[in-house]
Design goal:
Blueprint (H helix, E strand, L loop, with lengths): L2 E4 L4 H7 L2 H9 L19 H8 L3 H10 L2 E4 L1
Parallel strand pairs: 1-2
Length: about 80
């Protein structure tokens, strides 16, 4: 199965489809998403692109990290 990451999809949906994405996000600096309850609450409306802006991260770095883990990244 191809691993596809849509930057506008909710983090909740992404992690439900690809559980390994949670570990990648924590590695990138999205540590709050691993806290109990965060995925079920904030993760339902937070997208990866919103999280990148919120954390003032480099979009290309995030995309490249997911690509190294075998994901195809969609805008």
């Amino acid at each position: 199965m191809e691993k596809v990451l849509n930057m506008e999809e909710s983090i909740f949906d992404l992690v439900n489809r690809h559980p390994e994405a949670l570990e990648i996000m924590v590695e990138l600096g999205f540590r709050d998403i691993a806290k109990p309850g965060m995925l079920q609450t904030a993760g339902r409306f937070m997208t990866l692109s919103k999280g990148i802006k919120l954390k003032k991260m480099d979009t290309d770095t995030v995309k490249q990290t997911f690509q190294r883990h075998g994901f195809k990244v969609l805008e």
